[in-house]
Amino acid sequence: MHDILYHRHHIENYDHLEFPGVVPRTFIGALLVSILASPMVLAINLLHLPKFYSLLAVRLALGFFILATLRFLRIQIRDKFGPQVEAFFVILFAIQFHMLFYCTRPLPNILALGLVNLSYGYWLKGSYYATLRCLIFATIVFRCDMLLLLCPLGLGLLLTKSISIWKAIKCCAGAVLFSIGLTILVDSIMWQKLLWPEFNVFWFNSVLNRSSEWGTQPFYWYFTSALPRALLVAYPLFMFGVILDRRIVFYVLPVLSFVILYSKLPHKELRFIISSVPIFNLAAAVAASRMYVSSLFVNRYPFWYLLCSIVFFYRYNNRKKSFWNLLYIGLLGSLVISLGCTVVTFMASFENYPSGYALKTLHRVGDIKNTTSEIWVHIDTFSAMNGISWFCENDNRWRYSKEEDIPLENIWQQNFTYLLNEHLSINGYKCLFKEDGFSRIRLKVGFPPISMVKRPKVYVHGNLENTDIMHRVWPGCS
User: Fold this and answer.
1) pLDDT for the residue 408
2) Burial 271-302, CB ≥16 within 10 A → b, else e
3) Phi and psi (nearest 5°) for 25?
4) Residue 447 burial class via C-beta count within 10 angstroms: exposed 0-12, middle 13-18, buried 19 and up
5) Mean pLDDT computed over 462-468
6) What span, in angstroms and rounded, lies between the C-alpha atoms of 234 and 97?
7) DSSP 95-155
8) What mean pLDDT, rounded, does the chain reach?
9) Distance (Å, rounded) from C-alpha 127 to C-alpha 125?
10) Is 441 helix (H, G, I), strand (E, B) or coil?
11) Residue 451's CB: how many other CB atoms inside 10 A?
12) What's the CA gap between 171 and 30, in Å, rounded?
């Protein structure tokens, strides 16, 4: 997005040609977000504001897109399940850290999430062919693994006779041809070679099975770690919602199948299954709504309601039964606990970008004023992954290198002015200051009962041969 907004048609200057990554990714999402953000970026440039504000602009544009698709889904939830379910759906989303965190992360998973949200909305609305078209586009263009969601969902629609097989074939064929044609056209231009990015990703992850090189987790990891962290109170509630409202089974089953199928892939990350969260939140919102109004047993199960009335010695009023009152109180307590977990996670996340803070400090105190020569900063791989992007870099005389595979003992030969590095000591350089990052949470007596424990994560080094740097007083790294 940085290159689209600042290099525009000069593709030879784009970063991905020098650092292509493990597998190629499509430019279609980046183009969409850049178009949305371009008016804000133009205003930022006209006002001569730091480039960092452009980062906020593109993140806001992406967040706007994702939240707009969630709004479409929310409206369909209100139409099908009522305003109370809609309200609890919004509350559950608002107290879940990971969903809000990922909404502005420029990842293929999140761009696919926007289309998946639209497909869920059309699914609830009864526009089943539009549902399939959205999922096909998300699969072919952004994330090939959405096929694991498309297949169970499509099979469910066929088994329930919601769609006809021949009309579905014609609809899907058109969507497939359009999606493949668009991604090959756009990405072949941007990558300067004939390319279908998501086919390369499919081949790398599924055929070669090389994603496991980035770590593996057991089969049950999504159900014992990822989903509990992402859903919080909605995790037990969604299972309760399936029991309370039979309509939810139709929507939960394909999404649950998606997570189970994905669990077979050894390498696992929460963002891989982030598209399942909206439906699980819907099921949880149904359960929360039923606890609030306490009307399920009255309306559908009068025998069990009568039995509960006898046990709890209450009048024929479901809202006043002790069982439902306790459930509702437990729900409120769980919502508060979930909110507390989100606040703690936010605090930890805020401290989790040490290299970004280090570069900001370096820009403020590291300028060399008595020379017109360029200031070269080398950013190692660790620093590049912990808070630094092209949007964080200054223009003027500052220049940046992200060259990889330079042996640590030979980096002094490159004659960089500064280094941002994860190592405390480097030959030919002096450690000028360090930046701490989040390490762990510590419980303590008093208020607040928890605190963030930080430790040094990124070190800023200065070239020993640069006398201007060496004559200054620096905080040091001890």
Assistant:
1) 83
2) bbbbbbbbbbbbbbbbbbbbbbbbebbbeeee
3) -125, 155
4) exposed
5) 87
6) 12
7) T-HHHHHHTT---HHHHHHHHHHHHHHHHHHT-HHHHHHHHHHIIIII-GGGHHHHHHHHH
8) 87
9) 6
10) strand
11) 13
12) 27
| 10: its two tokens | 């000069």
User: How far apart (Å, rounded) are the C-alpha atoms in residues 71 and 348?
Assistant: 28
Nearest in space to 7 (alpha carbons), one of 53, 54, 43, 59: 54
Other C-beta atoms within 10 Å of 387: how many? Answer: 21
- Give Cα 426 to chain centroid, integer Å: 35
- Secondary structure of 306-353 in the HEC alphabet? HHHHHHHCCCCCHHHCHHHHHHHHHHHHHHHHHHHHHHHHHHHHHCCC
Q: Dig out the tokens for 115 from the structure.
A: 């289309």
Q: Give the global pTM.
A: 0.87
Q: How does DSSP classify residue 393?
A: -
For the stretch 333-354, pLDDT in tens is: 888 888 988 998 998 888 889 9
Instruction: Give the span between the Cα atoms of 221 and 248, in whole angstroms.
Output: 24
CA distance 283 to 290: 11
Placement of tokens 């493990």 in the chain: 22
What is residue 333's predicted lDDT score, i.e. its pLDDT? Answer: 86
Tokens representing residue 173 in the block: 């064929």
Q: What are the pLDDT digits (tens) for 208-241?
A: 777 777 778 899 999 999 999 999 999 999 998 8
Q: Say how far apart CA 205 and CA 218 lie, in whole Å.
A: 17
